[in-house]
Design a protein that fits this description.
single chain, three-stranded antiparallel beta sheet, about 15% strand, alpha+beta
Length: about 270
Amino acid sequence: MKVLQGAYQTTGTSPNVQAANASGPTATDGTQLDAAWLTDVFGVFQYALDAVGDSPDGSNELVSNATATNSLDGSQVLTALQGISGGAGELALLLTAKGASIPSSKRLLELTGQLVAVADYPDLAAAVWCGSTYNATATSLYRTNSGDTVRSDSGTHLRLPNAQGLFLRGADTGATYDPDGATRLPGSIQETAVGEHNHADLYTGVNETGTGYKLNVTGDPGTGIATTTAGVDTFYTGNAVQAAAGSTPEIETTESRPANLQVRICVRY
């Protein structure tokens, strides 16, 4: 960008200044613009529109041109710039200090299952609302009243999903990998499940009476390990950990999980 040089008329005292209108078509009492500088400004605007595949529509860049469902409709340039940086409904992952607030300049909301006012986030609501067909049954991304007691297509609030502690799974409408994929909605939660599996080497060795087998596990029966008494398999409640010969058992927990990295899952508005 070129710097505007020379004397020019403004209103206000630096740095709080505004450009001044000329009193007439040929008057020199308004703010002067350097042609090359103005061309640079227009060039940046045009580049932003080109970057998102848009072109000037001939309308003024005015907030009054915005619509009820999209607050950016009044500015093609702003819409283009936000399209370059990320549009409403896109997910973002943040690594921030624990408990740190997210600056509003990032236009991100952490997904914690909260209700948000449609009037405050019109672009987000327009982008992620589940639609009229599913509004009555969806578990999130539906429109409702401020108390979430009456759902309606014109609800003043939007329920966001709660992504805390969850892994993300890609939509699979063909149910190729996700058996529930054909009926799931964006933002829906799929509860924990354990798939069908076999324990081929679970039973080994002859028990005391020679008529059965005992579980091939190690540990104390009092902590949930099965044992055999007089030929009868006895099972104890608890969390059992079985280790292969010469190995160390995995960490015993209340869940099954892969190694993971904690992040804050957010949606852009």
